[in-house]
Specification:
Two copies of one chain form a homodimer. The first copy, chain A, folds into two domains: 341 residues, Bira Bifunctional Protein, Domain 2 (BirA Bifunctional Protein, domain 2); 100 residues, Anticodon-binding domain (Rossmann fold), CATH 3.40.50. Chain A has 16 helices and 16 strands. In chain A, the strands form three sheets. In chain A, strands 1-5-6-11-10-9-7-8 form an eight-stranded mixed β-sheet. In chain A, strands 13-12-14-15-16 form a five-stranded mixed β-sheet, sandwiched between helices. In chain A, α4 crosses α10. The radius of gyration of chain A is 29 Å and the shape is elongated.
Chain lengths: 447, 447
Amino acid sequence: MAARTHTFQPPKGTRDFYPQDLAVRRYIESVWREVSINHGFEEIDGPTFEHLDLYTAKSGPGIVSELFSFRRAGGDVDYALRPEFTPTLARMYAAQAGALPKPTKWFSIGPFFRAERPQRGRLREHIQWNLDIIGDESVAADVEIISAAVSALQALGLSPKNIQIQISDRRVMETILLDEGISDPTHQEEVYILLDRRSKLSREEFAWEAGKIGLSKEFITHLDKTIDFVQGHHYSVALQQMFPGDAEVHHVLFELMVELESLDLSQWVQVDLGVVRGLAYYTGTVFEIHETSGEERAIAGGGRYDNLVELFGGPPTPACGFAMGDVVLRLVLEDRGLLKAAQECAPRPDAFVISAGKDEAEKQFRPLVAKLRREGLHARHSYRSTRNVGKLLGEAAKARARFAVILGDELKDGPPWRVVVKDLDSGKQENVKLDDLATMLRERQKQ
Amino acid sequence: MAARTHTFQPPKGTRDFYPQDLAVRRYIESVWREVSINHGFEEIDGPTFEHLDLYTAKSGPGIVSELFSFRRAGGDVDYALRPEFTPTLARMYAAQAGALPKPTKWFSIGPFFRAERPQRGRLREHIQWNLDIIGDESVAADVEIISAAVSALQALGLSPKNIQIQISDRRVMETILLDEGISDPTHQEEVYILLDRRSKLSREEFAWEAGKIGLSKEFITHLDKTIDFVQGHHYSVALQQMFPGDAEVHHVLFELMVELESLDLSQWVQVDLGVVRGLAYYTGTVFEIHETSGEERAIAGGGRYDNLVELFGGPPTPACGFAMGDVVLRLVLEDRGLLKAAQECAPRPDAFVISAGKDEAEKQFRPLVAKLRREGLHARHSYRSTRNVGKLLGEAAKARARFAVILGDELKDGPPWRVVVKDLDSGKQENVKLDDLATMLRERQKQ
């Protein structure tokens, strides 16, 4: 037995959620859900695993090493645990495109999986919120999803002091690459993947890696300078100075920033041409949400992917969205003490039922608890054998019950049965008819 | 592309949840969660996949063919998608046993997986509710979980007319087998597995299969007669008549039934000695919840498993619990029209914001929507280009918004800005200062 004890751990990179951890997870999920609904999104979900092809169709076979893929014993179909939601969403939209409203606004919350080495902020299983607008090509859609992300961050207690949203448009970086003569899509993709890692590399490391994929020293310097200049200046100055006489290049990005400003979000957002996102499917706006110290991985990332629905058999359909995971978000919230309330906020019992120990009390005790629960009230009782009312009141207080219901001496008078109800906040006691108890507790619940 | 279209389906036996389906799922989950909390249970969760050994340790290697198992590319550890929650729960309890309260009352809700052939009531991925009491050996714990199951069924609109809970104690059947000289645990297990399938087999099929595992004709007749007799009579008569002078055999089952009666649950429950549950780990009370026509598979099943925590490295710990899946439950609820409200009950917008089209209205329209949402209100607007207020009011009504907020002619008077708020239930209109709008909507939300 001892030799197998190592297997009785959760798999590496996954989590056991004991009640306090689960309470935090449910709290984060409930903020995500409420914000999504307030912004007019409807919740959907897909299978936890998909056909492997759904991922290789979009990202090429290179993605397989990052996936948990499998077959059923004796089966001949390859599956993979979902690493992200967008392919499922595009597949689901494509299957029903004709019947769905324009735009379709969907969100989902559930587990996702990556077969990578676990590290700070990155696990093999995490919970992710996806929010997407499908069928709207306007900048207003990009603005709406960024605005929803801000609402969630704000509802969780974060502010522009802690958080920055870095925004770019892939087409701006594409123009810079084309100007340098980098027109081969595969080569462009290599540059995007390197740029995506830029903030994690030193200047020297970046230059060395850039050299490896054939970028000239001059171009690397130009890239660095361009990205730094835009980061250091207001977008209205920076974009026009970087692309004089070619407003077409950045007009979507410009309009996006103007609209975000009109929604009073300028403190949250900043243009960063270095943001390109690692995924191949983005076609326009791209953004990442980071904690300001830059020490953690991205909290969220997203952008516009106008070709994906078509790739999965649907009609040509513009779309944009983002994903926010729970792992980095939790670290950021924990570091700022913003999860304490959720951790401590166990649901409060409406009643803690106490039997003082006499015959009739013992007889009525469990049926009363069961009855209150069946009537939709949160009722608890002690599992200890003591019938010492003082001790049991202590247990009721520890459980943070709203009321203690004491089956005591009043029962000896026979029906109609009466019990003592003690308000554990005010200390006040009342004598209540048993038949009226559920109604009374439900009314107090609303107060 | 066309040749690959088959892959752009959800995997066989899994489900896409479009908004109406997801609404039903969330409704069922919310009933499960509320009932669990009202009964004093705390929510936990584990990883979606576990080490394969966690399942083979308990159920033997035979279970592997029913699992989706896999390895990471290049890895050397075998994993499996969780087919059930109890091994995770026992592992988690064992890891923290010293620090946990006695009893520990846990519930969980999440996806589970079986690599079986999909059929009515049985999918490869389903959502399951688990409810367990760990560390209490008394019959009261068995009673409490059965009582919680009833609360959930009742809250979902079901009654004893639709639902029966069939209860037994494995030790009763074990006594019957021992009396027949069947004492080898492996042979007993074979009989349990066959008994578990009894209700799905004809008398002839059952007799034939029973013969195959070495049961005599006389014993099969005796078994049938015993099970039928107990099913046909009140437990107090049946158990005593079947086991005269040996009350020890059925005293736990007897006490369980007496206590369930005292909680006013006798209409829901019935002793059925044919219920043994297929899983090897049950040690005492076992039960199944069925729709009364008997046409569907079990809605839920559970029982007492007093050896499992120890098997996973914890101290000897009594435990009992049950699991209820969403697939059969949904069929049963759908057949009775009990899911219509959940399907139709999309969240109701607090406000549908309409721009009548003038300059100032157009300017303030989107910022107002964003502001209301950031203040925690559910705000919507049209994505159509029309500025016809009548048409837009129609869209607001279709979205079932509580109020329409119209940015119209009042704006031409300049600040303080005023808008028209129309109550879409009563038809009443008011002229409201923009600064007061959020507060007003929030107050109405509470009414």
